[in-house]
Design a protein that fits this description.
seven-stranded antiparallel beta sheet, serine protease, eleven-stranded mixed beta sheet, 29 strands, about 15% helix, about 625 residues, aminopeptidase, Xaa-Pro dipeptidyl-peptidase, hydrolase, alpha+beta, single chain, signal, about 30% strand
C-alpha cells in the first residue's frame, strides 16, 4: 500500500512553565503544524440563541463541541473553524410524499406515506457514532476523542480550534428544526456570537463559560446541509465570521424543493420536502414539543401550487447576499442533481453583484466531498484561504485566479471568472428538421406524456427515431468542440392539454464517450496521511477518483416550468388547455464540452419521472417549431 505523508513537521514538545508565551508558528506566510492534536482540549458548551422556536418561553440553545490546542489554556488565542449540522446525532425513520398524484394533487395536510430512504442532504459523516454523545471515556485524554472529517488533524496543529454545532432541534440542542428557517440561521450564528463574547454559554455542569481563548475570528464550512448553514449565517452580516466554505450548499430552499412554480424534488429523492427533512433530523430530547412546528411545515410548504410563497422567501439567502462580509470559497459538483448547480450559480452571481471576495471550485463529480479527489491541492487552497481571512496573512490567496474548473479529461482549468470571460450567447432554433442557427417554418409538433412511468433517460435515447412521447431537436455532428458554460435558456411557444402542468427541457450530449458520473470510487491502494492522528482518527484518507460510464449520450442539464407559473413563480395564472403560450425558463447552469463529432440536443417532455410530480399519463404537449429556441452560453 502506498502511503504518502503531507506532514511537514512533528508536534513541538509541550512548553515548560518558564517557556515564552505560546504563539503561532508562521513560515512563508503559512501557519505551521506545531501544536499537538493528541493533547488538544475538548470542551462542550450550550450557547444561548436569539430564537425560541419551540415556544417554551426560553431562548433556544445550541450545543457546541470544541477541540483547541492545549496552549490556549496558557494564553494562546486562536481562530475557530465551525461546522454546524443537523446530522451529528443521526436521523429518524421518515415518511415520504406520494408523487404519483391525481389531477388535484396531494391534498394539503395529508401525512406522506412511509418510506425507507434518508433525505438527500445527509452528509458523508452520517452513520458514524453520534457526535453529540461522544465524550472522553474514563482514562482517555480529552484531545483523543475521534472527530469526523479532517479539520482537526490538519488545522488544529496549525493553531486553529475546530468546533461542531448541533443545529436547532437536533442532538443536544433545544428548539425545533425548520429546514432552513430563520431560527436555524440564528442557531448557528450563536456560535459565532459566543466566540466573540456576545452570547452566553454554559458548561455541562451548568456553569457560565466564555471563550477567552478565542480571537473571535471564525470560519464556517461543510457539505450539503452543513454547507448551507455557512451561507445562511453569513447573510446576517454577523461580526467575526471572516470566511465560509459552502460545499454543495443550498442558496435558496425554494430551488431545492421547487422549480419554475412546480414541485420538483432533489435528484434521487422523489417525495422529499421540507417537512420530511425536518422530521429526519429531529433528534433533540422531548421531541413532542416540536410536533406543531413540523406540522406547520407540512401545511405551509404547499405541495399543491409550488408557488414562491412567504414560506420560501424566508429560506431565500440570495436576497441578503449584500450583507455578506466573509470571504466565500464556493465548491460544487457539475454532476450534482441533489443540490443542483443552480445553487452555486445564482450565489456566485449575487456575490459578484455585491463585490464579495470569492473563489470557486467546480468539479466533475456529484454531491461529494472534494477533498479526496484532489487532496494536496484542496488542502493547499483551503489553508491559504483560512490563513488569509482568519489570521490576516498576506499569502496570495486573493492573487491567484479565483475560479478552477475541472475539465472532461479531469484536468483543471484556472480562469478569472465564471462563466469564462468571452462567453457569448448563441441562439439555436427548434426547427422541424432539428436545431439550427436560423428559424424555420412554423410547424406544430406534439408529444404525449409518459413520464409517470418512463424515466427521462429512456425518453431521450436514440434521437433520430420518431417517438410519440418526446420532441427531440439535434444539431448535426459538431465541426469543433463546443464549451457551454453558464445558464441555458428556453423560449418556447407551446400548449398543454391534459392533467400535467409541467414542461421539461433536457439538454443532451449525443455521442458515444466515457464521461464522469455523480459518483466516485475509493482507491484503497493510495492512502494519504495529511495530519496528526489519534486512536480512532488516523489523520489519513484514501484518495478517490471519478466513477465513469461509457454511453451513447448524457443529459447535461435540465429545466422545469409549471405552465401555470409562466408569468411568475409567486402566483399561478389561468391556463386554457390547448391554447399556445410563450414560455420562457432557465435550465441548470453547466460547464460542459460537447466534443467534435458529437451532436447537441434539446428534448422536450412534460413529466420528468425522477423530479416532478407525476400526474396521470396522456397529457399532450404541443410545441410550435420554427418560433421556439434555446440560447446557450458558449465560451471562446
Amino acid at each position: 500500500m502506498l502511503a504518502v505523508s503531507l506532514l511537514s513537521a512533528l508536534p513541538a514538545p509541550v512548553a515548560r512553565a518558564d517557556d515564552p508565551a505560546p504563539a503561532l508558528s508562521v513560515v512563508d506566510d503559512r501557519t505551521q503544524p506545531v501544536f499537538s492534536r493528541a493533547d488538544a482540549v475538548h470542551q462542550q458548551v450550550d450557547v444561548e440563541t436569539e430564537a425560541d422556536s419551540d415556544g417554551d418561553g426560553r431562548p433556544d440553545t445550541v450545543r457546541m463541541r470544541i477541540l483547541r490546542p492545549r496552549e490556549t489554556d496558557a494564553g494562546l488565542k486562536v481562530a475557530t473553524i465551525v461546522e454546524a449540522s443537523p446530522y451529528w446525532a443521526g436521523g429518524n425513520d421518515v415518511r415520504y410524499h406520494d408523487v404519483d398524484v391525481e389531477v388535484d394533487g396531494l391534498p394539503s395536510g395529508v401525512r406522506p406515506p412511509r418510506g425507507d430512504r434518508v433525505p438527500g442532504l445527509v452528509t458523508p459523516y452520517e452513520g458514524r457514532p453520534a457526535a453529540h454523545q461522544r465524550q472522553p471515556a474514563a482514562g482517555q485524554a480529552a484531545g483523543s476523542v475521534p472527530w469526523p472529517g479532517y479539520t482537526d488533524n490538519y488545522f488544529l496543529p496549525r493553531g486553529y480550534a475546530v468546533a461542531q454545532v448541533d443545529s436547532l432541534g437536533t442532538g443536544g440542542s433545544t428548539g425545533c428544526p425548520t429546514s432552513g428557517g430563520r431560527n436555524e440561521t440564528l442557531g448557528a450564528k450563536a456560535a459565532v456570537d459566543w466566540l466573540n463574547g456576545r452570547a452566553r454559554g454554559w458548561d455541562p455542569q451548568g456553569r457560565p463559560v466564555g471563550a477567552a481563548w478565542s480571537t473571535g475570528d471564525t470560519a464556517m464550512m461543510g457539505i450539503s446541509y452543513n454547507g448551507t448553514l455557512p451561507t445562511a449565517v453569513a447573510t446576517t452580516g454577523v461580526e467575526g465570521l471572516k470566511a465560509i466554505v459552502p460545499i454543495s450548499g443550498i442558496s435558496s430552499w425554494y430551488d431545492y424543493y421547487r422549480a419554475g412554480g412546480g414541485v420538483v424534488a432533489p435528484g434521487g429523492y422523489q417525495g422529499e420536502d421540507a417537512d420530511v427533512l425536518a422530521e429526519y433530523v429531529h433528534t433533540r430530547a422531548d421531541r413532542e414539543v416540536c410536533r406543531p412546528v413540523i406540522d406547520r411545515l407540512t401545511r405551509e410548504q404547499d405541495r399543491v401550487t409550488g408557488d414562491f410563497t412567504p414560506f420560501w422567501q424566508e429560506r431565500d439567502y440570495l436576497r441578503d447576499a449584500g450583507r455578506i462580509k466573509a470571504g466565500v470559497f464556493l465548491v460544487h459538483g457539475g454532476n450534482d442533481w441533489n443540490v443542483r448547480t443552480g445553487h452555486f450559480g445564482q450565489l456566485w452571481e449575487a456575490l459578484k453583484k455585491h463585490g464579495v471576495p470569492r473563489k470557486l471550485w467546480l468539479h466533475q463529480a456529484g454531491h461529494v466531498n472534494p477533498m479526496p479527489l484532489r487532496m494536496e491541492e484542496w488542502l493547499d487552497r483551503l489553508h491559504l484561504w483560512f490563513d488569509h481571512w482568519l489570521y490576516g496573512l498576506d499569502n496570495g490567496a486573493l492573487a491567484e485566479p479565483p475560479v478552477e474548473v475541472e475539465q472532461s479529461d479531469f484536468s483543471w482549468r484556472r480562469q478569472s471568472d465564471w462563466p469564462a470571460r468571452g462567453t457569448r450567447d448563441v441562439r439555436l432554433w427548434l426547427n422541424e428538421g432539428g436545431l439550427g442557427p436560423l428559424p424555420g417554418r412554423p410547424v406544430r409538433q406534439t408529444a404525449t406524456d409518459r413520464g409517470r412511468t418512463v424515466p427521462a433517460e429512456d425518453l431521450v435515447a436514440d434521437p433520430g427515431t420518431a417517438r410519440p412521447d418526446r420532441l427531440a431537436y439535434t444539431t448535426g455532428p459538431l465541426p469543433a468542440d463546443l464549451r457551454v458554460n453558464g445558464v441555458p435558456e428556453l423560449s418556447v411557444r407551446a400548449s398543454l392539454d391534459g392533467s400535467s402542468p409541467y414542461v421539461t427541457a433536457l439538454l443532451v450530449d449525443y455521442g458515444t464517450d466515457t464521461r464522469a458520473t455523480a459518483g466516485t470510487v475509493t482507491d484503497i491502494s493510495r492512502q494519504v496521511c495529511y495530519g496528526e492522528g489519534v486512536p480512532g482518527d488516523t489523520g489519513c484518507a484514501y484518495r478517490t477518483r471519478h466513477r465513469t460510464e461509457t454511453a451513447d449520450f448524457k443529459i447535461v442539464s435540465r429545466g422545469w416550468l409549471d405552465i401555470r407559473n409562466r408569468h411568475s413563480v409567486e402566483r399561478q395564472s389561468r391556463v386554457v388547455e390547448g391554447r399556445e403560450y410563450r414560455l420562457e425558463w432557465a435550465m441548470q447552469p453547466q460547464d460542459h464540452v460537447f466534443e467534435k463529432g458529437h451532436r447537441l440536443g434539446v428534448v422536450l417532455i412534460s413529466t420528468d419521472h425522477d423530479h416532478t410530480l407525476r400526474h396521470p399519463a396522456g397529457t399532450e404537449l404541443a410545441v410550435r417549431a420554427g418560433v421556439s429556441s434555446v440560447t446557450l452560453p458558449v465560451a471562446g
